[in-house]
Amino acid sequence: MYYPYFRGKQYDLFALTALLENDLLSPAIQPIIEPVKNSNALKKFIHLSQEKSQPFYLVQNPQAGDFLTAEGMKQLHALEMTKALIVEQPLETLTESPELFIVTNSAPALESDWQSNQTKVLVPEEFRLLEKIKGQRILSQDVFTRLPRSSFYQECQDELFSTTHLTYQKRNFVGFSDFSIDSRIYYEHSYPSKILSLHLVYFDSDTLRIHHFLSSEEAPTQKEKFFEMMAEITTWLERLCGNQVTLGLQLLLDAAAIDKFPGMGVMRKAAVMHHMELMARYLNKAF
Fold first, then answer.
1. What is the DSSP string of the chain?
2. What is the three-class DSSP state of 273?
3. How close are the terminal C-alpha atoms of the chain, in Å?
4. By three-state DSSP, how is residue 17 classified?
5. What is the pTM of this model?
6. pLDDT tens across 158-184, in order?
7. What is the pLDDT of residues 40-74, one digit of tens each?
């Protein structure tokens, strides 16, 4: 079971919603959403997930954003859905009973008594935590190589993304988690770059790899840089998604076909959609 972690950024939510609308998000994928904005995108995702009976978790104590006020927390706690909680204090002192615990800080987790725990736990691969925490554990990993500037990806444009989907069960985990094409570190704005980039995962046999598609610096406009990347992506299509183009890549192909630069937000939406659809195909076969 795959539990991708999203911090509720608008285009990530747009990506998940588009997949739901097209019945392309597998029940074997259960997103964890840490909401940072009380947006229409969040509300639409929640509504559609419930309508489609798509399992997901909503973090009740987000670490940044609109819900950190008293009113924001009140609105969040009023929502009726499957809830996750970041462990910020020993379990014995909690008054809430979420369906998922999230361990990000070692100290409160190590101070807790996990012997009788029956709740699923999202936990990083840290020896002390894995020794201490009992119950159904989900492995949390930060697998995306986030570099401060797109030009830095030129040194290694193609690399391993993950093999955890092949090994998590043998390692006594009930599921695995990552941050898709993002990192554990939360940020709202990326660094400006003269090079346009698009990060797309693909399966090489059963191994998941990622290719960093890059434009040149010389192209004078973002639109021309986008078409440079799309020319390369077109030659990679079969490797990226086999004989069936993913909906995310189709968004980019459609934009290129009408001579349009879709914008950075849509490019991110497309890359997330592509990743989630590939994982849905893989997991639907595996289960």
1. -B--EE---HHHHHHHHHHHHTT-S-TTB--EE---S--HHHHHHHHHHHHTT---EEESS-SSSGGGSHHHHHHHHHS-S-EEEE--S-GGG-----SEEE---HHHHHHS--TT--SEEEEES-HHHHHH--SSEEEE---S---SSGGGGGG-SEEEEE-HHHHTTTTT-SEEE--SSS-SS--SSPPP-SS-EEEEEEEETTEEEEEEEE--S--SSHHHHHHHHHHHHHHHHHHHHTTS--HHHHHHHHHHHTT----HHHHHHHHHHHHHHHHHHHHHHH-
2. helix
3. 9
4. helix
5. 0.93
6. 999 999 999 999 999 999 999 999 877
7. 999 999 999 999 999 999 999 998 878 888 888 88
pLDDT band at residue 190, thresholds of 50, 70 and 90?
low
* Beta-carbon count within 10 A of 41 CB: 17
* pLDDT, averaged across the chain: 91
Rounded to whole angstroms, how far apart are CA atoms 226 and 214?
9
User: One-letter amino acid identity for 112?
Assistant: S
- CA atoms of 234 and 222, how far apart (whole Å): 18
Q: What is the pLDDT of residues 85-108, one digit of tens each?
A: 999 999 999 988 899 999 999 999
β-pairing verdict for 158-162 and 207-214: antiparallel
